[in-house]
Amino acid sequence: MKDKKENKNKKQFFEDYSCMNQLLIVVGFLILGGILSWTYLGLTTAQTIADSGISSVQSSSQDEDQSIKVVKRNLKGEIVAEGLQVPYPMGVMIENLPSTRPQSGLQNASIVYETFVEGLATRFLAIFEKNGLEKIGPVRSARPYYTQWVSEYDSLYAHCGGSPEALINIYNWELNSINQISGDWQYYWRDSTKFAPHNLYTSSELLYRALVDKELANQEPLYQAWNFKDDQPATAELIEEKYIKLPMSGGSWAVEYKYDLEQNNYLRYNGGVEHQDMLTNETIRVKNVVVQIIPEIVAFGELGRLTLEIESGGEALIFMDGGYNIGTWKKEGTTDRTMFYYSDGAEVEFNVGNTWIEVVPKGYETVEYN
């Protein structure tokens, strides 16, 4: 009798234990399902935000006042997750004399400005946000209108001296200058295989060291963002070759862009030959090309240095996707970003990718395109 009772008790115990296990399994599945649902909802929300290009959203927690940054766009319009931001913008003056080509690093710049300097040669201001470039240059001197563009981005500014007016601007506007001939030599080196002064170079590593030294590495740059859109490439039915031709001052400085339908970007030519980047040994490709028409050259000053008016407004030709729009540009003040608009007044939406801005004074603005 005692054995039967004990067996009965054991049986009851195992039945109870089995029920409890089943209950725990059910509860576990419910909890796991909730976690997976919450994770899926979070991922879906983050993806929706990334697709929309929104830089911050309201937290979904009960604390409605708490905000969290989820994604942001860089100067090329690319979505960058919070915590994976690209470095603070780094502007570099880069020479364009035929003897200095091919330059190093231009393909990896987010924004490139090209316009005239003395002798109607051209020079580049390249704005970088990319690490890993072992050689950038050759680096040359500043000019006043380039300092105005630098101020739009609150950018680091790498240069080797400059015209008197440019150096005054750098001082008065407190630009983040690293001037190779004014105490900042440690961020540069000379390439012994080339002739001075056309042999000065820097790198992403040295520029980032300058950002750290100037306490900019962890700062958020202050600039107005452009709008961006998805690619809308030209159709394969196009028969004629799409191109943009800018004589500039002619000869070695003539510029041409040829549209590549397959990659939906433009191959750049300089002085009648493919414009290559020494780091890639390939022709430079550009996603967006802007021809910004500015007023006539204001003055040819000492040593032929130019005075250019870039803070008013005027006509702009915007090229992307194998097509073009005739629009306008406006820069309201020294530190305001140059903005571009369609003919109906709507702000231009650029393709995600690099943008080259050809700044051409009236009198040199002849542009051939199709």
Structure in words:
22% of the residues lie in helices and 30% in strands. The protein is built from four helices and 28 strands. The protein has a ten-stranded mixed beta sheet, with helices on both faces. Strands 13, 14, 15, 16, 19 and 28 form a six-stranded antiparallel beta sheet that branches. A hairpin with a 5-residue loop joins strand 21 and strand 22. Helix 2 packs parallel to helix 3.
Give a short synopsis of this structure:
This protein is an alpha+beta fold and 370 residues long. Helix content is 22%, strand content 30%. Strands 9-8-5-7-6-27-20-23-24-25 form a ten-stranded mixed sheet, with helices on both faces. Strands 13, 14, 15, 16, 19 and 28 form a six-stranded antiparallel sheet that branches.
- Spatial gap, N to C terminus: 104 Å
The tally of helices reads 4
Number of strands: 28
Radius of gyration: 28 Å
Largest sheet: 10 strands, mixed
Structural class: alpha+beta
Shape: globular
Average pLDDT reading: 84
Q: Helix content range of the residues, please?
A: 10-25%
Poorly predicted ranges (pLDDT <50, ≥5 residues)?
A: 1-68
Enumerate the strands of the largest sheet in spatial order, edge to edge or round the barrel. Answer: 9-8-5-7-6-27-20-23-24-25
Report the β-strand fraction as a percent range.
25-35%
